[in-house]
UniProtKB/TrEMBL annotation:
Alphabetized InterPro entries for the sequence: Rossmann-like_a/b/a_fold (IPR014729), TilS/TtcA_N (IPR011063), tRNA_Ile_lys_synt (IPR012094), tRNA_Ile_lys_synt_N (IPR012795), tRNA_Ile_lys_synt_subst-bd (IPR015262)
Subcellular compartments: Cytoplasm
Alphabetized PANTHER family for the sequence: TRNA(ILE)-LYSIDINE SYNTHASE-RELATED
Domain tRNA(Ile)-lysidine synthase substrate-binding span(s) in chain numbering: 251-319
Sequence positions that bind ATP: S32, G33, G34, A35, D36, S37
Keyword list, A-Z: ATP-binding, Cytoplasm, Ligase, Nucleotide-binding, tRNA processing
Enzyme Commission number, as recorded: 6.3.4.19
The protein's name in its UniProt record: tRNA(Ile)-lysidine synthase
Highest taxon above the source species: Bacteria
Enzymatic reactions: cytidine(34) in tRNA(Ile2) + L-lysine + ATP = lysidine(34) in tRNA(Ile2) + AMP + diphosphate + H(+)
Length: 335
């Protein structure tokens, strides 16, 4: 008798995601002890040996909940019992900036990056599922996001791999239990004070009830399609940027005018971020304001962006720089 179908599915998802890695390389699973990342650990332990890879694990203790250190110890024990080696527990201190959830995520990724560097791991696996992806897309739609955000989480981003984006949370949980692993259920996942939990527990079930089953799968498919579109537009923008930029890193307005707005706004965003405007606070209204310097210019002096970056149009070029530098340019122009 073969393995339980859910177990077979998680193993095959991990095998597919690890395909083509150089043999002998180390792959880490980022494990919280929840059903998703525990199933991931179980599937990795099974798959890695057969793929000629070494498998290890890291758990991060955010220190935010009662008993979190003991739980991290528990996770370490389970990962070791699966045969993973090395296994590390990393305690992080979580700041408050941007809210506790965002701060915990940032501290976690910093810790995972450091662990990957220290241990020489080529890949880190994350347990996000199709349901997480559907929630991300719905939240993005509610915020009016563009294609890049609606593309959701990438199956492969740098060293991070998400093998379970094609599997439902229920399927992954079944696999976890069928492998004899006891998941820890984070009480936060039940707390409807969090928008994401309300989307999971109220909005998506209502959509499924009213529109028919398969809404989450459909949202995840939308994400995958938009990822391809957004990748294509980004590649176009990268080429367009090379064409529009002169030796001085200023952008030629005529070249920009000839681009579709979707491509031009990507070029402008990219240059603004490279100049020092923080990606997180640079909103589409800011990019639209810079775009008007190109398409609807009435001699206005310039546009201020977050991070003290100023964009000015001068002699058919857009210049991005700190407000002081741009300001001195303006003075020169007037002189
Ligand atoms: N404490 C932890 N230690 C190690 N890995 C973790 C921890 N918490 C989460 N992860 C990893 O991140 C994945 C996603 O977890 P979760 O959905 O709780 O995080 P999120 O903050 O919503 O997602 P993201 O970090 O991508 O924004 C988990 O499946 C697991 O692989």
């Amino acid at each position: 008798m073969g393995p339980d179908p859910a177990v077979a599915a998680v193993r095959s998802a991990v095998r597919e995601s690890l395909g083509g890695r150089p043999s002998g390389g180390l792959v880490l699973v980022a494990c919280s002890g929840g059903a998703d990342s525990l199933a991931l650990a179980g599937a990795l332990a099974f798959t890695a040996v057969r793929a000629g890879l070494r498998a290890g694990g890291v758990t991060v203790d955010h220190g935010l909940q009662e008993g979190s250190a003991a739980r991290a110890d528990e996770v370490v024990k389970v990962l070791r019992s699966l045969g993973l080696d090395p296994v590390e527990s990393v305690a992080v201190s979580v700041g408050r900036a941007g809210g506790p959830e965002a701060a915990a995520r940032e501290a976690r990724y910093t810790a995972l990056n450091e662990a990957a560097e220290r241990l020489g791991a080529g890949a880190v696996l994350l347990g996000h599922t199709l349901d997480d992806q559907a929630e991300t897309v719905l939240l993005g739609l509610a915020r009016g996001s563009g294609a890049r955000s609606l593309a959701g989480m990438a199956p492969c981003a740098g060293r991070y791999l998400r093998p379970f984006l094609g599997l439902t949370r229920a399927e992954v949980r079944r696999a976890c239990l069928a492998m004899g692993l006891a998941p820890w259920d984070d009480p936060h996942n039940e707390d409807t004070a969090y928008t994401r939990v309300r989307v999971r527990k109220k909005v998506l079930p209502l959509l499924e009830e009213e529109l028919g089953p398969g809404v989450s799968e459909a949202l995840a498919r939308t994400a995958a399609q938009l990822r391809e579109d957004a990748d294509a537009l980004d590649a176009w923008a990268a080429r367009a940027l090379e064409e529009a930029r002169d030796f001085d890193h200023a952008l030629d307005v005529r070249t920009l005018e000839g681009l579709p707005r979707a491509v031009r706004s990507r070029v402008l965003r990219r240059v603004a971020v490279a100049a020092g405007s923080p990606a997180g606070t640079l909103a589409s209204v800011h990019v639209a304001a810079v775009d008007r310097l190109v398409t609807a210019w009435h001699g206005q002096r310039g546009v201020d962006l977050p991070g003290g970056i100023r964009v000015i149009r001068r002699y058919g070029k857009l210049h991005f720089g700190t407000a002081e530098v741009a300001g001195s340019g303006e003075t020169r122009r007037k002189a």
